Amino acid sequence: MNKNLFNSDAYIREVISDVVKVQKIQWNNEEVYEFELEKTCFFPEQGGQTSDTGKFYDLDSSDVYEVFHCYIKDDTVYHLARLMDQESEEKTVLEQPRRIHGMINWEERFDKMQNHSGEHLVSGTVHRFFGFDNVGFALSADNCTLDFNGTFSDEDIELIENTVNRAVFENIEVLVLYPTDEELKKIDYRSKKELTGQVRIVEFPGYDVCACCAPHVKRTGEIGLIKIISAEHFKGGTRMTIRCGYRALKDYRTKLESCRSISKLLSVPIDDVASGTEKLNEDLRKARFDLIGQMNTILLLKANEVIKEENPVIFIETADMNAARATVNTMVKQSKGLCGIFIGTDEKGYSYIVSSMTTDCTAVLNSLKTQLNAKGGGSKSMIQGSVPSTENQIRDLLNKFSNLENIALI
Ligand SMILES: [Zn+2]
What we know:
The protein is of the alpha+beta class. Helix content is 35%, strand content 30%.
């Protein structure tokens, strides 16, 4: 067991410590150094929160290690690190670090403290207002999700957001308590599991009381804005994604930039991008409708050009499948051959629809599948799918097919 400085003070960013043990281990198929220190300020992965990262400076040499993961086992924190100078010779046991200066990546740590503390306010408020429990929590360097065993309306989400942000503006002191067993029995606190030994209680007075081992901010004002960016149905409850502090600021910047770009593209004020996009969608829908009409006309003209052929087939680069189906339906009324439309190119392959009043189209489908690796399905009177072949290959197959005698008649 080593001394965990983050338990008593979450703001300790660096530590000078004797190395209890360092050894090389395999971690995800990579050989890395595993450090055990006499004391540490690095928070290990636990409770759904990923670990701190940072650097170790060997105080007896110029070696620097990148600490990329920490885990806890039997109350001891283990630090996994890579030697940053790739040119370094492998360390002999005698050359291994005896004393290190460890520095956590403070920007990442404080960001997690903001989001973790924000999570307390949200979970405590949800529990107080709706009686739901937080049944899952995940906090990494770029995401923070909370799972609840209940669902929320849009109004509920707004109420939760207003409440937790009020707690931020009130700048409440966050308390850390180590109650005796007797004192603990009198405390109404949230906990995901049965706890043994000394329990660490974190209290956001008026908003949340919870058993927790992670680093938190000292006052709620440090959390900054708390924004619930999504609340989706998940396993019968809700998965909520939140952004707090710097993350909320970054999220606002990203979304504002998107809105600015859309505003410019649509030539509408930024507050009107939703109605502007709605209008654009309507314009596109009309344009598409017109295009299908024109495509229909083109397909019918092409159909007229080939309808007298034994097997009238059209090859065209682009066309709407609904228009193609309508045209093929018109063609089969005027021809006893195989009527087909193939949409695409020799390079990309073709989507097809083939129909006939006299020939069993499933026989054609089988040939297309076995000889040209086509995909598709259908009935005796109509088949459709895709085929990764050239126009010549497809025409050859259809021509051979039409020359067969005893074609099954429908
Ligand atoms: Zn906590």
